[in-house]
Amino acid sequence: MAATITVPEGWAWVAAALLSAQFLLSGQAFIVGRRRQTAGIEYPQLYAEKAQVEASKDAKIFNCAQRAHQNTLEFIPVVYSSTLLTAVCYPNFAAAACGTWVFGRILYTRGYITGDPAKRNSQGGFIGSIAQIGLLIGSITSVFKLMQASL
Question: Which residue windows are transmembrane per the record (predicted)?
């Protein structure tokens, strides 16, 4: 049995923003793999040990790359769900906020993989946080509107 789903205008941008997050994750995974190889950290070791970090700047950079990717993976379910919830009522805003979060994550990753963890928040962390707060507010507003409409 076929079903038709009607989505608000602007959902193509939401799809594009969500797809950009997949490219972000793939790019981060690629960076982690390259940094793992450069540092000589063998699988299944998740992070370089303290002694490895003290002996090699490459090991520290690997840890920073791995942590940037892991942190993104920790936030991605929240970003995906809040983007989708926001997009029910505000698709253009949801797409813009999700895209901004991805852009912030790119800057976050570029700062982190310098080997100086403090650089992760110089711009990227702030931009991503503002976008995520926007998505949270958009989600709350959308859910509230949906609940009002169902009463």
Answer: 12-32, 126-147
